[in-house]
Amino acid sequence: MHPAASVILFTTLSGAGAGLLALLGLLGPLGLLPAARGFGLAAFGLALGAISAGLLASTFHLGHPERAWRAFSQWRSSWLSREGVAALATYPPAGLYALGWVGLERNSGPWALLGLLTAALAVLTVYCTAMIYVSLKPIQRWANRWVAPNYLALALMTGALWLHLLVRLFALPQPAVPGLAVAALLLAAPLKLAYWRFIDRTRSAATPESATGLKGLGPVRLFEAPHTQENYLLREMGYRIARKHAARLRRIAALLAFALPLALTLATLALPPWAASLAALAAALSATAGVLIERWLFFAEAKHTVTLYYGQNAA
Questions:
Q1: What are phi and psi of 106, to 5 degrees?
Q2: pLDDT digits (tens, 9 = 90+) for 219-260
Q3: Element (H, E) at 151
Q4: What's the domain range around 36?
Q5: In a domain, 207, yes or no
């Protein structure tokens, strides 16, 4: 599939923002994050800003962005619509929770209920985003059991790393946060590697024979190209990346998203405060860059079964 910059930015930014928002909604009520005004203003501003920027970026992938509001009416059957509904539904409780945290310096009692609701809706939004791709059965590299756990784990990982940075910047004595960031990294990395292993070792059940309905007549091959030049389907559905380039980009993504942030996060435990803050910033930026590359690969390596009609032997 053609990797659209708008969708790559959307899934990366919204995932990180939702991950951070979910952690604020969960850790605050548990007493693991103090309701400090400055910290809350920065954390909620970053989380809601990233989610909003991601949603705005997603509209640029639409043929008619001004009609985006119509997508919300199809929530009964469309994961895209459900994602939009869940994302918008997250704003009211998140805004009230932020008001209690920043305005009243409270994240317990009734405010805790708002926090838990915010966390649940943030997680639901990321899950709906993942299910948009899982539900597309013609694309075997998306319609599998590894996609949704990867989306959730990467959102948690990037959110935890940005939370760790904020905790360091505001000098909050919260030793559980670096441990949470490390745990999130150790969860996300194996899931991503398992996904890559899965798509390398499996292939779509669709073949040129099954796609054309000529399965019982022997092998099917393309006699003549249906077009004299590249068309929309080939540009969007038939994007191809060389195996050697994909392997190189996977290594870069793994280094930036997992290995380097893990080393930097562990280093913060032994560094002085100012150096620990710089290391936490580098870890968060590195992971975000790594996820951007990972997300580009997620789209570039996907194969649509429509390409079977254009001479490819497998999807």
A1: -135, 135
A2: 767 666 666 666 666 666 666 776 778 899 999 999 999 999
A3: helix 147-169
A4: 5-310
A5: yes
